[in-house]
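Sample intake sheet
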Amino acid sequence: MSLKSNDKLLSDLLERILFNEKDFDDFKSVIFNVSIGKNDPRLLKEKIISSRVRILEELKDLFPFYMNQIIKKQSIEKFVNEGNNSGLIEELRDKDDFLTKIGSRIDVIFKKIKEKE
């Protein structure tokens, strides 16, 4: 994941947290009810404070998760881009050859046992 896509992801996540539609609907309703005298203005203050507390909690949950994802993606990109895979590929080929030879030997042994039965 590139730096630009990381920024876009973070921006989208923050936007969803900060501009929560439910909060705006609640504020709209409370403001209307306060303006017509149906609700006490303290209720609006309480709604604002509870909204800010929710935002803070969501941000506290978001950042550790986001940072772990960035670190994992960077590790994967570093592994892929470093080109040190040639040793791993060679090792996998050696193991594949070894297992193929063992498989052939086991097949021969199995056929001999079947013939004796």
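Comment: Residues 62 and 97 are 46 Å apart (CA to CA). The helical segments are 3-18, 21-35, 41-82, 85-116.
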